[in-house]
Amino acid sequence: MNAALKIRVVLADDHPVVREGLAALINQQGDMEVVADAADGEQAIAAYEQHRPDLMMLDLRMPKLDGLAVIERVLKAHPEARLLVVTAYDDDEDIFQSLTRGAKGYLLKDASRREILSAIRTVCEDRPHTPASVVAKALERMTQSALTDRENEVLQLLIEGYTNRQIAQQLQITASTARSHVRSILTKLDASNRTEAVVRAHKRGLIRLQE
Fold this sequence. Notes:
This protein is α/β, with parallel strands linked by helices and about 210 residues long. It has two domains: about 5-140, Rossmann fold, CATH 3.40.50.2300; about 150-205, Orthogonal Bundle (Arc Repressor Mutant, subunit A), CATH 1.10.10.10. It is built from ten helices and five strands; from the N terminus they run E-H-E-H-E-H-E-H-E-H-H-H-H-H-H. The chain has a five-stranded parallel beta sheet, sandwiched between helices. The chain is elongated, with a radius of gyration of 21 Å. The mean pLDDT is about 85.
C-alpha cells in the first residue's frame, strides 16, 4: 500500500514494553504505521498535535495527565479525532467515562493480535469497537441511578466527616431521614461504607477531593 494511504497511529502508554509490542505489530502491517509514541499524557497531546494521526491508542493510567484528561483535551481541540483506549482495566467506571467522553473504542491489553488490528481498522472507519463484555459493563453503569440534589448535599457533608445526626442538624431534617439518604447513597454508589462511597464518588467525577 502507498505510504500516504497508511493508517497513521500514535501510541500513548507509560510502559515501554507495551509501546514496543504494539509498534512491532502495527508496523508489520502493510496498511498502517506508528508515527510517534508517548510515555505520558502531556506527550500524548503534543504528539497528536504534531502528527495529527488517523488514530491514537492510549492507556488510561499515565503520568502527568491520565487518559481521560487526554481524551477530553484532544477532542475539544479536534472533535474529529479517533481515539482507542487500550488498557488492562475493565472497571465499569473506566469504561463508562472513556466512552462518554468520546473515545471511539475500548480494548483490553490481553486482546488477541487479530482483535487489536481489527479495532484499529474499525475505529479508523469512524465506527466504534468495544468488546461485548465491555459494552455490558458500560450499560450496567449507565443504568445506575443518579444521586438526587438532596443526596448530593448529604454526600458533601459525608466528605467533611459529618455524622448522621450532624447531617440532620445541618440540613434541618430528621436523623432517620439523614440515615435514609446515606443508605441510598451507598446503594447507588455500590459502596459498603462511607469511605468507599467518597472514593467511588470521586472516581465518578461527582466530587473533587482537596489535595
